[in-house]
TrEMBL record, chain A:
This is ERF1 domain 1-domain-containing protein. One of its GO terms (molecular function) is metal ion binding. Residues 76-95 have a biased composition (Low complexity). Its cofactor is a divalent metal cation. It is found in: Cytoplasm. The keyword Metal-binding applies. Coiled coil: none annotated. Belongs to the eukaryotic release factor 1 family. Pelota subfamily.
UniProtKB/TrEMBL annotation, chain B:
This is Elongation factor 1 alpha-like protein. InterPro entries: EFTu-like_2, GTP-eEF1A_C, P-loop_NTPase, T_Tr_GTP-bd_dom, TRAFAC_GTPase_members, Transl_B-barrel_sf, Transl_elong_EF1A/Init_IF2_C. SUPFAM superfamilies: EF-Tu/eEF-1alpha/eIF2-gamma C-terminal domain, P-loop containing nucleoside triphosphate hydrolases, Translation proteins. The lineage of its organism: Eukaryota, Fungi, Dikarya, Basidiomycota, Agaricomycotina. One of its GO terms (molecular function) is GTP binding.
């Protein structure tokens, strides 16, 4: 994302102008823009003019529109969940590795111009290389500003391609700082070994699977891209070795030098326990990957989430989750690391957002660490399943004791209030 | 071993005749667009049902009674730690019982010696794929059958390697009884029995899947000079664990064997068995197999067949293999495939490499299906009568028993759900209550975490894969026991087993 300008005063009012450049920037914008904000961006609108004689003249006009957001839609270019070989063939024609995510923002126009009436609805289709000006309805809070700072860091393109496979199934994933995109899923029936069907059907099925996998790999993994740091092949059993060997053999058979080099330099084989995409979390925990990618955000998220689960196993009183409990822990200044999903900040209700922003600020003030998980990553998805918020405490606290304390406190306050009333 | 292809060919119904050369172009277009009514075009292929349902049940009962006097059929899963000698034992047993001919044996011996793996020569009769032979381990379940004097036994040779537990689960869910093979050699038994060893995990899994009878074969005793002390030491270690895992002591038996040499399998005699005979006069393995009791079969319930394998059968159709969990199925019957909206017609049924007109609960059968596209079938699909389909579940409640785990289960925990041959990503979406293990009474409702060795009622939600979420066929345990058992694994460890209480949709 290119940073164009920023006019934000100390109270948080003002606007920021950004120029998105890739899919990930769309995701950043999606996280920044909320209901009620004012967005100014270039748009193409069909304008109808009725002349005095009654003939209708319709024109497409490129103009800048400012709208008050009522809805934000984001769609990553995720692949369909199951793809038969036929689908795979169809996809070949239309697919590009850098397929674009789409961000649509709709709302009434708030600044009138000569073509569009005030209050007319428009849906802005945010495009790359076009400036977007964002003015926050509730003012810029610390989380939003931090997001802007994060988004405009140049040259962070630490991209990793991951191939999660099992016998007959494969998922192609592209990991960037804030997003995991499943670009393609493959599922081919491989007859299992069984004395009745014989071994040949099994082997034939496997070979067909490897062949399809190879074709999909060529299409869906931008292996020649310099920005691609690593290609992870992950699977249970020994499928990854067979897949790798097949690809190397096939690449040399076809004389594809670029692919051969990429396979040699970039491939990391990782063991996982199940062929599902959620095993990506295991990939990110594995030592082979951690050593290569520990700087990246997704690896960091994976490590922190793992720490949380481990803490839950060893000392339950230092691992809390759920919004109410985490707030209680924050009140006591106990939070060492706060794990929070960016999904919570996208809450359309400003009060909810404010609550979480307040929580993040409170933890940071007390010297705690805050890790904001991207809900487009597998780790973020898992955090979201655990209510989206969790915390590692610096000292053990018993949930039940704290809850009881809190109740007592509330009771005391109520009594004090009543007493005041009686006194007055 | 008789080649299945040969037997199949002998008995296979007439295959589709080759299309005539002068095909009408419009016909071709129609069929290309799938416009031809499938019923009509395939009607000649699909045989008619020969029995009314009541008649069929009567017939089945009669034949089961007859079986009780003769040979009763049951299926046996062979489990145990990797390299305990499961496949070798089965290979040797098949040979001893005359199910493997001398030529196959000699070929296996020759080829395995050529590959420098002569110790795997017996296992090669079950480990058929080249990768299995190369690595010298079983990777997927092999299905074989043999008969003893009193039993007709279907053997499922499960892989022992930790990586292939999903396949082992698929095998164990098709079995009535288990044969646990334990390596007696020094250090090997211990490594299989310690935490994370497969001796332990397989037993727990088999029990959770409803296997109640187990024979423990203490193998490789020849490597410890047939030491009686070693045999008894291992029995003493296993006994309490078996009881703790829920195997009744009356339904477990122990036996010393030497699989490679063929000692105490069919007979206990000869030069190799001398040392064993000094202290052992008990039954042979086959004697014990003869004593296995087949569980009662529920033939009146609606038919349920979870598909464990799909392959191209003889001729044009697709064949699926799987175990009939309940009910009966006959040739010509139309079956619904779940999940999905499709049905298929049973063209022929093969049990133990023989064509049969019907198959009843308990049998592992191969069904040849017609009037269906192979896309509709996946491993894990369930076949059932169209009038009585299995409910599809996205969310359901279950009572689970939690095993040894390092990270406790919390609401929202990511797990893999195993149900017969299917595994899907799921999450424990709600912790409803912790229960008392013995009485099943609620100890605490809405617990925050579930720790190890506890029992609980939870809500489980199937997780979406990509854009769509596919529900899976599941039935409450109360309605159908075999369809209501689930296993929960996480990061390669089995963390809980349970039964489905209620399907919420």
């Amino acid at each position: 994302m290119k940073f164009v300008n920023r006019f934000v005063d100390k109270h948080g009012t003002g606007h920021v102008t950004l120029r998105p450049e890739d899919d990930e920037d769309m995701w950043h914008l999606y996280n920044l823009i909320q209901e009620g904000d004012s967005i100014r961006a270039p748009a193409i609108r069909r304008v109808q003019k009725i002349s005095s004689t009654g003939s209708v003249d319709s024109q497409r006009v490129r103009l800048n529109l400012t709208i008050k957001v009522t809805r934000v839609d984001f769609s990553s270019s995720a692949a369909p969940s199951t793809a038969t070989p036929n689908d795979a063939a169809d996809a070949s024609s239309s697919n590009q590795p850098d397929a674009t995510a789409a961000l649509h923002i709709s709302g009434p126009v708030t600044v009138e111009n000569q073509h569009v009436r005030l209050g007319a609805f428009h849906t802005l289709d945010i495009e790359v290389q076009r400036d977007v000006r964002i003015e926050k309805f509730e003012g810029w809070d610390s989380v939003a500003l931090a997001r802007v700072d994060e988004a405009i860091v140049p040259g962070k393109g630490a991209e990793v391609a991951a191939l999660v496979c099992g016998e007959g199934t494969a998922a192609f994933c592209l990991l960037s700082q804030h997003m995991t995109l499943v670009t393609h899923r493959l599922s081919l029936p491989v007859p299992r070994k069984g004395s009745a069907s014989g071994a040949t059907q099994h082997e034939k099925g496997l070979n067909r699977f490897y062949g399809t996998l190879f074709e999909s790999f060529l299409r869906h993994v931008p292996y020649s891209n310099v920005g691609l740091k690593a290609i992870v092949i992950a699977s249970p059993g020994w499928v990854r070795d067979s897949v790798y060997d097949y690809m190397v053999a096939e690449a040399s058979r076809r004389g594809d030098k670029v692919l051969q080099k990429a396979l040699k330099d970039k491939v990391v084989k990782v063991h996982i326990s199940s062929p599902h995409v959620h095993s990506l979390v295991e990939v990110l925990k594995s030592p082979e990957i951690v050593s290569q990618l520990k700087e990246t955000k997704f690896a960091r998220e994976g490590i922190v989430l793992d720490k949380f689960f481990k803490m839950l196993g060893t000392d339950e009183m230092r691992a809390w989750y759920g919004p109410d409990h985490v707030v209680l822990a924050a009140d006591r200044g106990a939070i060492g690391t706060l794990l929070i999903s960016d999904d919570l900040f996208r809450a359309s209700n400003p009060v909810t957002r404010k609550k979480y922003v307040g929580l993040v600020e409170a933890v940071q003030q007390k010297g705690g660490e805050v890790v904001i998980f991207s809900s487009m990553h597998e780790s973020g998805q898992q955090l979201l399943l655990l209510t989206g918020i969790a915390a590692l405490l610096t000292f053990p606290l018993d949930v039940e004791v704290v809850e009881a304390e809190d109740k007592e406190e509330a009771e005391r306050l109520r009594l004090a209030k009543e007493g005041e009333l009686d006194g007055g | 071993m008789g080649s299945p292809a040969k037997v199949g060919k002998k008995a296979a119904p007439p295959t589709k005749t080759a299309p005539p050369a002068y095909l009408d172009q419009s016909q071709l277009d129609l069929s290309g667009l799938n416009l031809v009514n499938k019923e009509v075009s395939k009607a000649e292929e699909a045989p008619k049902m020969s029995f009314a349902h009541d008649k069929l049940l009567e017939e089945v009962r009669k034949s089961l009674d007859a079986q009780r006097k003769g040979k009763q059929a049951l299926s046996l899963v062979v489990i145990g730690h990797v390299d305990a000698g499961k496949s070798t034992l089965m290979g040797r047993l098949l040979y001893e019982l005359g199910r493997m001919d001398e030529r196959t044996r000699a070929a296996n011996e020759r080829n395995s010696t050529k590959a420098g793996k002569s110790s795997f020569s017996w296992a090669w009769s079950l480990d058929g794929t080249s990768e299995e032979r190369e690595r010298g381990i079983t990777m997927d379940v092999a299905l074989e059958s043999f008969s003893t004097t009193k039993r007709q036994i279907t053997v499922l040779d499960a892989p022992g390697h930790k990586e292939f537990i999903p396949n082992m689960i698929s095998g164990a869910s098709r079995a009535d009884c288990a044969l646990l093979v334990v390596d007696a050699s020094t250090g090997e038994f211990e490594s299989g029995f310690e935490r994370g060893g497969q001796t332990r995990e397989h037993l727990v899994l088999a029990r959770s899947l409803g296997v109640a009878q187990v024979i423990v074969a203490i193998n490789k005793l020849d490597q410890v000079q047939w030491g009686k002390n070693r045999y008894e030491e291992i029995c003493a270690l296993l006994r309490p664990f078996l009881t703790q895992s829920g195997f009744h002591s009356a339904k477990t038996s122990f036996i010393p064997i030497g699989a490679m040499l063929g000692v105490n399998l069919v007979a206990c005699e000869g030069e190799d068995a001398k040392q064993l005979l000094e202290w052992y006069q008990g039954p042979t393995l086959v004697d014990l197999l003869d004593k296995l009791e087949p569980p009662s079969r529920d033939i009146t319930a609606p038919a349920r067949i979870p598909v464990s394998n799909i392959f191209k059968g003889q001729g044009s159709g697709i064949s699926v293999s799987g175990r009939v969990l309940s009910g009966v199925v006959q040739v010509g019957e139309r079956l619904r495939i779940l999940p999905g909206d499709e049905t298929a017609v049973v063209k022929s049924i093969e049990v133990e490499e023989e064509n049969v007109p019907w198959v009843a609960a308990g049998s592992n059968a191969i069904l040849a299906l017609v009037s269906v596209d192979s896309v509709q079938l996946t491993i894990g699909s369930v076949l059932c009568p169209p009038a009585n389909p299995v409910p599809l579940a996205l969310t359901f409640t279950a009572r689970i028993l939690i095993f040894d785990l390092q990270v406790p289960i919390i609401a929202g925990a990511m797990v893999e759900l195993f149900h017969h041959s299917r595994d899907v990503p799921a999450s424990v979406s709600k912790l409803i209550a912790t229960l008392d293990r013995a009485s099943g009474k609620v100890v605490k409702s809405n617990p925050r975490v579930l720790g190890k060795a506890s029992s609980a009622e939870v809500q489980i939600t199937i997780r979406s894969t990509g854009s769509s979420t596919r529900p899976i066929p599941l039935e409450p345990y109360a309605a159908n026991k075999a369809m209501g058992r689930i296993l929960i694994r996480r990061e390669g460890e089995t963390i809980a087993a349970g039964i489905v209480m209620e399907v919420l949709g």
